[in-house]
Write a structure and sequence with these properties.
The chain has helices at 18-31, 43-49, 54-66, 111-118, 125-131, 141-151, 169-180, 196-204, 247-260, 315-322, 329-341, 343-365, 390-399, 430-444, 448-453, and strands at 70-73, 77-80, 99-100, 163-166, 186-190, 207-211, 213-214, 217-218, 230-233, 264-267, 287-292, 304-307, 370-372, 379-383, 402-403, 405-406, 420-424. Helix content is 37%, strand content 14%.
């Protein structure tokens, strides 16, 4: 049943500031007259009840969404959030609950001993002394050659002269976005995308434009009328949906990039888990490849990798320098050492097996639920049944000590988000993961409204 809000008691002037209407609804939420999970009436119904224009009703709902008080869900309407939004960017810091199904940072038990042995050759005084000196974004010809060889795959070989290094993958994305769009510019992204990109764009003054998806990712026709300065996408094991582009889709998208004179930022962060050719192989002159060692190795010592393209020229290096995002000497030396001696490749292969095992476990425990994803990925998308909402389910899971991410964290703009959560499978040990997924299954099948209000 739709909530009949308290402002219905008085007449509303059609010229009334939409913010005052939003304030009254916010007061109802704060006072508990509107409770977590309550559904607001459709915007047209809200406008009719309060004698205001439909456009004004839309601005009221947009303002409440901006404040983090309500969330929209595709085909279901707008609902009061089950909990206040996190104070920082979504997925930016480890969760404050015992079981982390929110962040995807796989670290295998055997990594420490293996990497300790691999680093022995680097612990020479002269090598460490060199690593302590300042380095630029382009580092050295030797460093660029190692990175170019490591990034090559699927018929694509980046030029060593186009390689740059940043402190981490997020800085690589920031540098690429800054190179493509000025403040006030527009970058197209998947309608559901990596949440940290939203924070990066906001700090750069860039508007993110959601692009329609199908079962292979961004639809090429979605670029046609979007008036963009560039696009950001994840062609392999897309986060959060696990989508992967086939060869025909990559070719179609490459053709659209050329036709519209656009450059794409290809985030290859999960490419080590899949044998897929990159988009860069189909349009090497139109794609900036970004990657890092945070997933391949570990978040504790990461390194951002960038392979530029002819269309951006010197702009990419200038953006990295101006943002002070260049890698520091010691992590650069360590990362390059692992790339060159095969440690990164061996670790990546071990993580492929680990991700597949965790997927099998999750699909077995959650059998019968509405799951979406790739069997090679470290994450799963769980569609929720009525009357659950993504936000309320995440809040109920947190009360059981399990962190999951609602779909709204991945949605671009103030539009509707699917009624779903993403499950990150990488962090817990297998026994803990099995137990946590079992508890989530029981939660999905429980009395949703009782769980929300507990």
């Amino acid at each position: 049943m739709w909530y009949k809000c308290s402002i219905a008691l008085g007449a509303i002037n059609v010229t009334q500031d939409f913010r005052s209407l939003a304030d009254r609804l916010a007061a109802d939420i704060a006072a508990g007259r509107l409770k977590p999970g309550d559904r607001l009436p459709p915007q047209r119904e809200f406008a009719y009840r309060h004698d205001i224009a439909a456009s004004t009703a839309g601005r009221v709902y947009a303002e409440l969404t901006r404040r983090g008080l309500i969330t929209g869900e595709v085909g279901r309407g707008s609902y009061v959030r089950a909990a206040a939004p996190a104070p920082g960017p979504a997925l930016a810091d480890p969760p404050a609950v015992p079981v982390d199904l929110e962040l995807i940072f796989p670290v295998l038990p055997e990594q420490g001993p293996a990497m300790s042995a691999a680093l022995a050759g680097l612990l020479q005084p002269e090598l460490l002394q060199r690593a302590l000196r300042p380095v630029g974004a382009a580092a050295t010809p030797e460093a660029r050659a190692i990175a170019a060889s490591f990034l090559a795959r699927g018929g694509w070989q980046p030029s060593a002269d186009a390689i740059l290094f940043t402190g981490n993958g997020r800085q690589a994305i920031a540098g690429a976005m800054a190179a493509l769009a000025p403040a006030g510019g527009r970058i197209g992204v998947e309608a559901l995308t990596y949440p940290v990109v939203k924070g990066i764009a906001a700090r750069l003054g860039i508007t993110l434009v959601p692009l329609a998806l199908d079962d292979q990712g961004i639809r090429p026709d979605a670029l046609r009328d979007a008036r963009l300065d560039g696009i950001y996408l994840q062609p392999a094991l897309q986060n959060p949906l696990g989508l992967t582009m086939g060869a025909e889709r990559r070719s179609e998208l490459a053709g659209m990039l050329r036709k519209l004179d656009l450059v794409a930022i290809e985030d290859g962060i999960y490419s080590f888990l899949a044998d897929e050719a990159p988009l860069a192989a189909s349009a090497p002159e139109r794609v900036i490849m970004v990657d890092s060692l945070s997933k391949r190795i570990a978040p504790g010592l990461t390194l951002g990798l960038m392979a530029g393209c002819a269309a951006v020229g010197e702009r990419l290096a200038a953006a990295v320098r101006s943002g002070t995002w260049a890698a520091a000497g010691v992590p650069l030396a360590v990362g390059l050492h692992w790339l060159a001696d095969g440690t990164a490749q061996r670790t990546g292969h071990a993580k492929r097996a680990d991700a597949a095992a965790r997927q099998r476990l999750a699909r077995d425990v959650l059998l019968g639920l509405d799951l979406r994803g790739d069997a090679r990925a470290y994450h799963l998308w769980l569609e929720l049944p009525e009357p659950w909402r993504g936000e309320s389910f995440a809040a109920a899971a947190a009360r059981q000590g399990i962190a999951v991410t609602p779909a709204s964290a991945f949605a671009i703009g103030t539009g509707h988000a699917p009624n779903a959560v993403r499950l990150a499978l990488a962090s817990p040990d297998l026994a803990t993961l099995h137990d946590a997924l079992g508890r989530l299954r029981r939660l999905v099948q429980s009395d949703a409204m009782a769980a929300i209000r507990d």
